[in-house]
Amino acid sequence: MKQMENIVVGISIGDLNGIGGEIVLKTFEDARILDFCTPVIFASSKTMAFYKTHFKSEINFFNINDMSQVALGKVNVFNCWNEPVKIEFGKEDLKIGAYAIKSLEAATKALKEGSIQVLVTAPINKHNIQSEDFKFPGHTDYLSQQLEGDSLMFMITDTLRVGLLTDHVPVKDVAAHITPKLIEQKIETVYNCLKKDFKIQKPKIAVLGINPHTGDNGVIGTEDDTVLRPTLKKIKDSGKLVYGPYAADSFFGSNNYKNFDAIIASYHDQGLIPFKTLSFGQGVNFTAGLSKVRTSPDHGTAYEIAGKGIADENSFKEAVYSAMQIFKNRTDYETLTANPLKKAARNERR
Q: Is CB count within 10 Å lower at the N or C end of the chain?
C-alpha cells in the first residue's frame, strides 16, 4: 500500500472526563478504516485500557513510547504519561485538564516533526486547561502559535463551509476587531484554502454583515458601510468572486448559502448557530490557513452524557475523514504547482 493511501493520523485525547475516549474508540472499532489511516492516540496505555474495559470495546491497541515504533494499519497508543489517572466522567477537573494539554503538546510536537501527517483533536474544556504555562482559549489559538500560517476557524461539511472573521472574541469587542487588514487576511486565507484544500479553482465567497440588516444605511451601526463594504469592493476589484455584506438573519433561511463555496461570518455565533443547526453531528471544525492539517468534531466534552456509552461518534469520524481528504488534496495541489518552469519546459518538449 502506498504511503499516501495510509495516512498517519495523530489524535489528542482531549478531556478524559468527557466523551473523547468513547468517540475515539467507536471511530476505530471498525477495522476497515485502518486500510486508509494509521491512528496514533496521544494518551497512555493505562488510560485507553480503562476506556476499553468501561465501554466493553473489542478494539486492540499497539502501545508505543517512541514515534519510530508506529505500526502502520494498527491503532497505536503513544504513552504521554505512565501513571494511572482517576477518571470521573462528567466532572470538571484541573488535573484532568493538565493531561489534555500533555496529549495536545505531544501530538503537536509529532505533527511539527512530521511523525504524524494530520492532527484530529478530541474536545477539551477551555476552563480547566488554563495554567501558568498554557493560557490559550483553545486548540486554534495554541496551534496558531505553534504552526506557520494565518489560522482561521472553518466549519465544514460536504455542502457547507463557514469561516469566521473573529472567533473567540466577546460580542462587545467584535466591531473593533474587524479592520480592513483583518478582512483582507481572512478572505485571502479562505480563498487559498478553497483552492488548495478543496480543489475549487475559482471560489465564490459570501460575507455576512457586522450589524443587523448590515446597518440599515447607518441606522443600526456604521461599520458595514465604512469598513466592510469598501474592503469587499477592493477585494472584488482585484478579481476574486467575493460578495456581500449580506444580512445574516435571512441568508441561511432563504437557502442563499447554497450559491457559494464558502460563507464568512463576522463573529462566532453568527456563523456557528446556523452551521450547527443545519449540520450538527456531521460538521467538522477545520483550522484553515496553517502549514499542517488539523480538524476536530463540531461539539464539546458533553459532560452530561460522558461515560454512558451513548455518545455519537459521527462528527469525530467525519473529522478523521476530512483531515485525510484535505491532506491528500493539499499534497496533490503542491505537486501540481511545484516547479512551474520545469513543468512548462516538459510540456514544450512534448
A: C
